[in-house]
Amino acid sequence: MRAFFAAVEQGLPVVRTADLDPAPTPAELAALRDAGLLRDEGRAGIEEISASDLARALRALYAVQGRGLPVPATLGRDPMMLGWSGEGDSERDVFLLAGPGLSLTSALFRSRRTLLLLPTARLLTPELRAKHAPGSFIVIDVLEESLTVHDGRLARAAVRAPSAPDLSAFSPTPAPPTALTPTPSSAPPPAPRVISGATRWSEIHISLVDPTTVRIDLPGASVRRTYVDLGMAHSKNRQPRRVWELLVELCDGHGIFLSTRFGSADATKKLISRLGGELGAIFGLGDSAFHPYRPTEGWQTRFQASPRIR
């Protein structure tokens, strides 16, 4: 995949696939062709790189809303705006930086929260990685590292994070009520319904629909569930529990949590563990829903998470 994104970074309109080095695997080439990113140009061994289909694919993979913004037809030296992710305080402008003469300088001094997509890590120094890590005002994501092929299709790889404190057993602390007020009921909320179909966390995509509902996509199914459906409501008043609030934060943060909203590091660790255990029971998965923690990168999910969808 790296050689393809290196060609994208250079703004090449066509590429001889046999000359790509390192050579993409047959599965990677097939996925790139199926997504329209590589198109047969009618000359043996030469394929067109479709900038417009690349933009459409990235919009889908990163849950970017186009809002009427036309997709670009070519790769140029200026940052290519794809649209917006998230809403309200979590909204980000999303740009692809590709083409001849690519420069990061101007893009890194934007006054709005931004997600910058770089085809390769060639221009990304360790200092820039640290400064523009997930959760920063300006976030940089590298396509050659983040995109993979799953079940024959392009997909975002599960977000990676290094290692952290051990998650030990704990007793949950009751959560204060929030402003959300579901329909009153004297009956306790139902037990969460099991959602089957995924064999690993990377096959699950959770998107926020509204403050009380998520959409869950997994192989062969797409369902909507409220926090009550997921068993994340208090038994007495049906207010959302803190595990739901954390899940909402993770969706808004594209699967990343760096905030201190839920208290101390120990309190956050316990809440993360609680949410991971409940999600594991819902999806029937035994391994952790979260990657190990690092202070500079925060908590990151093994499943895909996206901000509010329309």
Query: How can the largest sheet be summarized?
Result: 4 strands, mixed
| Number of strand elements | 15
Domain unit count: 2
Portion in helices = 10-25%
Which runs of at least 5 residues are low in confidence (pLDDT < 50)? 158-186
Q: Structural class, judged by helices and strands?
A: alpha+beta
- Which strand order spans the largest sheet, edge to edge or round the barrel? 4-5-6-7
Instruction: Count up the helices.
Output: 7
Structural overview:
The strands form 5 sheets. The chain has a 4-stranded mixed β-sheet. It has a 4-stranded mixed β-sheet with strand order 12-11-10-15, with helices on one face. A 3-stranded antiparallel β-sheet has the order 1-3-2. The longest helix has 19 residues, at 265-283. It folds into 2 domains: 2-156, no CATH class; 158-310, no CATH class. β8 and β9 form a beta hairpin. By secondary structure, it is α+β, with helices and mostly antiparallel strands. It contains 7 helices and 15 strands. α6 (242-252) crosses α7. It has helices spanning 2-10, 26-34, 51-61, 126-131, 143-146, 242-252, 265-283, and strands at 14-16, 38-43, 46-49, 80-85, 92-96, 114-118, 138-142, 147-150, 153-156, 205-210, 213-218, 221-226, 256-257, 299-300, 304-306. The chain is globular and about 65 Å long.
